[in-house]
Amino acid sequence: MKAIFLVLPIITSLLLGSLLLPSAFAQVDREGSWHAGEGLKQGDFFSYTMCHVDYKECSEFDLEMWIKGDKQVGTETKWLAEVVVYDGNKIIKGEMELGKIAPEPTGGSENLGVYRGAFKSSVSWLSAFATADDRSGGKGPKEFSMQSWGKIGNIGGEQVIPLSVETITVPAGTWETVVVGWKTGGQLNKVWIQDGFPFPIKAHTFTHVSEGIPPSEYKFTLLEYRENVQQSPFEEVIPTVDELAAKGCDTNFEKEVSIKKPTNNFDYQMHVFYGPEEVVQGCEMQWLIKFISKYDDTEFLNQVQFDFFVVDDNLAPLRSIAQEEGRNYLYSPSGQYILDMIVREDPGDANYVVWIYGLAPESIVPSGASDYLEITVPIYAGEESTIPDPIPNTTPTQNIPTWIKTNAGWWANGDIDDNSFVQGIQYLIKEGIMQIPPTAQGSASGTNEIPAWIKNNAGWWANGDIDDEAFVQGIQFLIKEGIMTISS
Fold it and tell me: What is the dihedral of CA 187, 192, 195, 198, to 10 degrees?
């Protein structure tokens, strides 16, 4: 059906990359209405690829849902749906309850909690404006010809408006849709819906930011739709947790191990957590990676492009998590990233590397040099083989007296000056009390100004937040830069 647009008399700048304001459109000339859940019935099967900013900052996963039938919850009758999520290397299986007036998930299996929230805030989000019933204060179905379906709830929120009629092709086929949209931070949010279909076909929306490029809030695309599916399509699906439990893996662990240290070239501070404490081949492992400014340990870095490698002793990559997820790199808009993986490495010491390409918006190549943090983790064999003793650590132990930590704490707090701290370290190195690995001596910089993050390191070391090795790396930096001079 042809769409007719009546352009209001406003003037817009035609700058590169600019988008027309939603207010530049009048109503869509099309009969009919829509509400979330329209036409939903038993036997419907949906498959979406999707993401939401609240789950791993919009890392994509696939969600498949089959409407099994009705479920009575108190006095309310709901839809009961069987759901399978494919999230990277993990398969999660469970049930989800959907309301009949608004098809929002209101309950279900505990293991689907984060995915249920992402579904509610994306695929079924328009139920905040259009539902099946307008009685008792309900929102009711919305006409395509309306000038506005409602207003976004935040301060300065935009109107949600039917914009146009558009034929789109997605993996589930070709659909004639009505585009519903609103503007956020200079970007036009779009949701494509079809009359009579219960959920949107496609969407791409952005978070509200006061400056910079808005990151995606949610994206989804319909991969497959089937009707009248009478038997569960998930009978043969085995969730990952069951497979891991059968192998004897720990499936209920915390990220107990903490590592806080600078990257190899001292461009970034890193705070990394992983679990379980004893990592077993063939089992699950989870990381929490925090990218921190080297100048301020309370400031998270934004728009980090990175990868997570397994490397050999020469730093040659053996495995890339980004490639396994079908991406060129991993991306963290906020400076924090949760990474799940199955441990494929052989028993012994495995070398994991967080490789930072730089800071830049998604899809833009960073301009700076790369840097990295290498983390060695002992890997144990599973139940089917004998667990070997961990390979001995060949790195010489830094046997540093505890009183030096007191000095470091005083220096970090400003109780002693830079010169006193440097002289003390020089003395300890010359006397052999502090063992520094071979380090190229740099030429003096003239100012001999010690970077602020070195003081941060000293304070963390004094408090026991980082180990001796990380502190020694900071001293190595002072020597390389010529700030600290050590005689032969």
Answer: -110
Helix (H/G/I), strand (E/B), else coil: 101: coil
Domains of the chain, with CATH numbers?
22-226 (no CATH), 251-380 (2.60.40.1930), 402-480 (no CATH)
Per-residue pLDDT tens digits for 95-117: 999 999 999 999 999 999 999 99
Q: Which residues contact 241 (CB under 8 A, 6 or more apart)?
A: 92, 111, 251
| Nearest in space to 20 (alpha carbons), one of 153, 193, 161 | 161
What lies within 8 Å, CB to CB, of 57 at 6+ separation is 215, 331, 332, 333, 334, 337
Determine the residue type at 136. S
Within 10 Å of residue 28's Cβ, how many Cβ atoms? Answer: 24
Instruction: Please compute, for residue 389, the number of CA atoms within 13 A of its CA located in the half-sphere on the CB side.
Output: 3
Which of 274, 294, 271, 269 lies closest to 286 in space, CA to CA? 274
Distance CA 196, CA 33 (A): 9
Q: How confident is the model at residue 467, as a pLDDT? A: 73
* Percent of the residues in the chain that have a pLDDT greater than 90, as a whole number: 52
Torsion of CA 355, 359, 362, 363, to 10 degrees: -80
Strand, coil or helix: 230? coil
| Cβ atoms 407, 392 nearer than 8 A | no
Distance of CA 242 to the CA centre of its chain: 25
Using a 10 angstrom Cβ sphere, with 0-12 exposed, 13-18 middle and 19 or more buried, the burial of residue 256 is: exposed
Give the pair of three-digit tokens for residue 283. Answer: 């089992």
Q: What is the pLDDT of residues 403-456, one digit of tens each?
A: 677 778 788 887 777 777 777 777 677 666 666 665 555 555 445 567 767 777
| CA neighbor of 46 nearest in space, from 29, 68, 27, 30 | 68
Rounded Cα distance between 369 and 265, Å, is 10
Gap between the Cα atoms of 262 and 468, Å rounded: 13
Q: How far is CA 59 from the centre of its chain?
A: 6
What strand order describes the sheet that includes 76-87? 105-108, 90-98, 76-87, 61-73, 45-52, 216-226, 202-206, 187-193, 173-184, 159-170, 150-151
Whether the predicted pLDDT of 52 surpasses 60? yes
Cis bond upstream, residue 276 (ω within 30): yes
Q: Which residue has the tokens 């947790």?
A: 241
DSSP string, 438-471: --PPPPP-SS-PPPHHHHHHHHHHHHTSS-HHHH
Tell me the average pLDDT across 130-152.
84
Q: Is the pTM of this model over 0.85?
A: no
The span from the CA of 323 to the CA of 329, in Å, is 7
**Looking at this protein, which amino acid is placed at residue 105?**
P
